[in-house]
Amino acid sequence: MSIKSLSDAATLYNGVKMPWLGLGVWRAQEGGEVENAVKTAIQVGYRSIDTAAMYGNEAGVGRAVRESGVPREELFITTKVWNTDQGYDSTLAAFEASLQRLGMDYVDLYLIHWPVAGKYKETWKALEKIYRDGRARAIGVSNFQIHHLEDLMADAEIKPMVNQVEFHPYLTQKELREYCSQHAIQVEAWRPLMKGEVANVPEIRELAAKYGKTPAQIVLRWNLQHGVVTIPKSVSESRIRENADVFDFELSQEDMAKLDGLNRNQRFGPDPDNFDF
């Protein structure tokens, strides 16, 4: 897959273009920290910012976008409905609250944050309404396994456009990615750098030396060559720049396979089949 610049984008099945690489802002503090991270990223050339109601920093993201000097329509903003707000009416209310905090009249992508049993179908109906009303250009889910997707799509009128999941060399999610591909659902990676653990994996360090790149850059490139949208999080200017410097090289098929071979089905985040929040 030829992805050559920060402005390159995946095309979702409804025709909306979503940048392949974006900035995640989980744990970025509301106020100066998140605002500086978002402004830096936009200045560097990022056009996609991923936040969530639960992160508590939507207002800062909105301020940074307004002050960035880049027209809103050139940016791709994602946010998510949190678990305690799931259900039809409560999701609609939560979406309005997110828009208010962001200071926007639409988002580019709205996601269900986790598959809360007994609630996500009603939540999805709310997302379908939001999409039909033109207030989200695309809708999707996060942390859904194959069985969650099958269950959701059994009653859905609109299928998810994106599934954002934990994805990295220790958790390659091959079956889930194949399933999503068959259903034209774009996979997006969170925690692609394994909480920084990529720097300690000998095979990744070897490839970093071979390509003259950092371990993080090797793994982000691996994400992109798998056709997975990725949103590494950082509040550091040097890291935000480093993470974007992945468009001037390509991993060989052999090296892609080497990274695939590191899979251990190991999660650094919660298990979507066993979470209690």
Description of the molecule:
Pfam families: Aldo_ket_red (PF00248). One of its GO terms (molecular function) is oxidoreductase activity, acting on the CH-OH group of donors, NAD or NADP as acceptor. Belongs to the aldo/keto reductase family. This protein has one domain: TIM Barrel, CATH 3.20.20. The mean pLDDT is 97. The strands form 2 sheets. An 8-stranded parallel β-sheet has the order 3-4-5-6-7-8-9-10. Helices cover 39% and strands 13% of the residues. It has 277 residues and is of the alpha/beta class.
Helix/strand layout:
Elements: E1 9-11, E2 17-19, E3 23-24, H1 32-44, E4 48-50, H2 58-67, E5 76-81, H3 88-102, E6 109-112, H4 120-132, E7 139-142, H5 146-155, E8 162-166, H6 174-182, E9 186-190, H7 202-211, H8 215-225, E10 229-230, H9 237-244, H10 253-260
Parallel strand pairs: 3-4, 4-5, 5-6, 6-7, 7-8, 8-9, 9-10
Antiparallel strand pairs: 1-2
Helix pairs in contact: 1-2, 1-9, 2-3, 3-4, 7-8
Binding site for substrate: 113
Domain NADP-dependent oxidoreductase: 21-263
Site (Lowers pKa of active site Tyr): 80
Helix/strand-derived class?
alpha/beta
Task: Determine the fraction of residues in helical runs and give it as a percent range.
Answer: 25-40%
CATH architecture: Alpha-Beta Barrel
Please tell me the total number of domains: 1
Indicate the low-confidence ranges by residue numbers: none
Spatial order of strands in the largest sheet: 3-4-5-6-7-8-9-10
GO molecular function, one term: oxidoreductase activity, acting on the CH-OH group of donors, NAD or NADP as acceptor
Domain NADP-dependent oxidoreductase: 21-263
Keywords: NADP, Oxidoreductase
Binding site for substrate: 113
